[in-house]
Specification:
Blueprint lengths: L1 E5 L4 H12 L3 E5 L7 H7 L20 E4 L8 H8 L4 E3 H9 L3 E6 L4 H14 L5 E3 L11 E2 L6 E5 L21 E4 L13 H13 L6 E5 L3 H6 L8 E5 L4 E4 L2 E6 L2 E5 L4 H16 L4 H8 L10 E5 L4 E5 L4 H14 L4 E7 L8 H4 L11 E5 L2 H6 L7 H8 L4 E4 L2 H9 L6 E6 L9 H9 L2
Parallel strand pairs: 1-2, 1-3, 3-4, 5-8, 5-9, 6-8, 9-10, 10-11, 16-20, 17-18, 17-20, 18-19
Antiparallel strand pairs: 6-7, 12-13, 13-14, 15-16
């Protein structure tokens, strides 16, 4: 099979390219910008385009498929050539479905928790040497790539993103996967630039449920009233299984799951992760994992990258990095760290990076979300606001939107670092939250500097 990627440099797109190359396909690709780590990964695999830009000569009648990334516009010259030649053109999720259409597909959807639940499931399956395909939105210990596809596996585990599929296909990605087993973890408004109202956003999850395959299963979070409500629309042939928080305890900073009068130490923490564990356990059971096998495996799960990832620590301080960027994620992540370390103060710092978080209208959704922290910091780069063609934000506008005591707002990353280095970190933890990278701050280097102050 010969497959060409238009916009190969994206995180998901280049991961799919690597997975197909490993499967034996001949892969080519193009892009006008490719950054790390995609650039290095593609170079190591011999897939980095020789020159940047779009080149119609890359598109020939000998191609079996063209995969179109979100970054590519409708007037892309390579896309136009592919249309002229009447080649098969797929979006990223369409091609994943094409690769797994004859397998049992598990799709984890929801505004939060989907990466972690997906990671837990594939960790447990891998621990017990099950064969499976997967796609997950973060790096996980023990896996070289975020996507794996094979000929002989009978199941596929996909993280179900509600963002759009491609410039030609405005459907949310998770509408395309048609799950046999669907998980719905929670609903909290996100992607304001695509779903302008909360009602429009909720509708996408209803369609997700409607797209479950005949005689399938819906596993849903009963603790979320909205999720519990829309779960009722599932067809009669779809079995609906609710889940809630897994029983647990924290003793001397060690988190233990409690099940059948036994206690199982785990590496992750936070009440929201106890929900995630319950969801993962239900899925694993449907895939043939026994309870004993699940608890044996989950104890070695260390979490996905940037999901309460421990960057560094000493006797008095832990520094965590988390992907939290939406209001619900922000609140849950802060609560998790405070619960784990009740005797330490928490300094919580979020970078406003997404379109939604930098929109003045949506910013009001963050009201009170950082109240759980002892000290709160909000950082945003005015150039990011300008690049997204949004209304200019002021520090006062941001502060009023969050309406949190002990809040500081920064627009300069150098000033942010200076502030963090001025803190006495004894008996204090730091939680850094962003879907970006704080404008290129070396987080590991910063953590090392703070831990020796």
């Amino acid at each position: 099979m010969k497959v060409h990627f238009i916009a190969i440099g994206g995180s998901a797109m280049h991961s799919l390219a690597l997975a197909l190359q490993k499967k034996g396909y001949t892969i080519t690709g193009s892009d006008d910008e490719i950054f790390e780590p995609s650039k290095g990964n593609l170079m190591n695999a011999g897939l980095l385009p020789k020159e940047q830009g779009w080149h119609p000569e890359n598109i020939t009648s000998g191609l079996d498929a063209v995969i179109l990334g979100m970054h590519a516009r409708e007037d892309n010259p390579e896309l136009q050539k592919a249309r002229e030649l009447k080649l098969k053109i797929y979006s990223y999720p369409e091609y994943l479905f094409e690769q797994t259409k004859d397998k049992t597909r598990v799709v984890i959807g929801g505004s939060h928790g989907k990466t972690t639940i997906t990671s837990m499931i594939i960790h447990v399956l891998n621990f017990h040497k099950f064969k499976f395909d997967f796609m997950v939105g973060a790096r996980i210990d023990g896996f070289e790539n975020m996507i794996s596809l094979s000929e002989d596996s009978l199941m596929a585990i996909f993280e179900g993103d509600e963002y759009l599929s491609s410039t030609l296909d405005p459907r949310p990605k998770f509408h395309i996967y048609k799950p046999n087993i669907a998980v719905l973890s929670g609903i909290a408004w996100d992607h304001f630039n695509v779903f302008a109202t909360f009602e429009m956003y909720v509708e996408q999850f209803k369609i997700f449920i409607e797209n479950i395959e005949p005689n399938g299963c819906l596993i849903y979070c009963a603790d979320d009233p909205l999720v519990a409500g829309i779960a009722l629309i599932a067809r009669d042939d779809v079995k609906s299984n609710p889940y809630s928080f897994h029983s647990y305890e924290i003793d001397d900073n060690q988190v233990r799951l409690i099940y059948d009068n036994k206690k199982y130490p785990i590496n992750i923490f936070g009440k929201h992760n106890m929900q995630n564990i319950s969801a993962a356990k239900q899925v694993c059971k449907l895939l043939g994992i026994t309870d004993n096998q699940f608890y044996e495996a989950i104890g070695s799960f260390k979490g996905a990258a940037k999901r309460l990832q421990l960057i560094g620590k000493n006797e008095y301080t832990n520094i965590y990095l988390d992907y939290a960027h939406s209001p619900s994620k922000l609140r849950a992540t802060i609560k998790a760290v405070k619960e784990r370390f009740p005797d330490r103060q928490l300094v919580a710092c979020i970078e406003l990076h997404t379109f939604s978080s930098l929109s003045e209208e949506f910013l009001q959704q963050y009201y009170g979300t950082m109240e759980g922290a002892d000290s709160a910091i909000v950082y945003f780069n005015p150039h990011a606001v300008e690049a997204k063609r949004l209304k200019t934000l002021s520090e006062d506008t941001v502060a009023k939107a969050f309406s949190t005591k002990h809040l500081s707002v920064f627009k300069d990353s150098k000033e942010l670092i200076k502030e963090l280095k001025s803190v006495d970190w004894k008996n204090k933890n730091l939680l850094l939250m962003s879907s970006g990278n704080f404008d290129g701050i070396d987080i590991n280097e910063l953590a090392s500097a703070l831990l020796v102050l």
